[in-house]
Amino acid sequence: MGYELKTKPTERSVIEFIEQVENVKKREDAFHLLDIFTETTGYEAKMWGPSIIGFGSYHYRYESEHDGDAAIVGFSPRKSNFSLYLFAQDPQCQALLEKLGKHKVGKACIYINKLADIDVKVLKQIIQRSVQAVSELYTIREK
Length: 143
Known about the structure:
The protein is an alpha+beta fold. It has helices at 14-19, 24-41, 91-100, 120-137, and strands at 45-48, 52-61, 67-77, 82-85, 104-105, 110-112, 139-142. Helix 3 (91-100) packs antiparallel against helix 4 (120-137).
């Protein structure tokens, strides 16, 4: 039996999901992030799994022959912070991260506490660069 990908697009409403965020300020920031990602990517927001808001999709295949689809970029309003799913490994994104503001970097995402901690113009540049980088490396499924 093959590996089953847990994070898949769902039919759940993005708006309903954000409306269920308990913290009022976090909910406001989540709606603002929704606007930023939608405007910057040109993609419609979709729920990926129970808690990730993704934009666009691409197909990947590893040397192990494991393959699947994933959101090009996205975010999730977690209880402790926001997880921003961005492809920020290239030098251009690394330089932009230095200008982003207060954040932490994980293996596959950037963590911020609130939008007021970061420079939204820099975030938009990182989103644009992430979409471009993924487009250069993988097959885009959804334009």
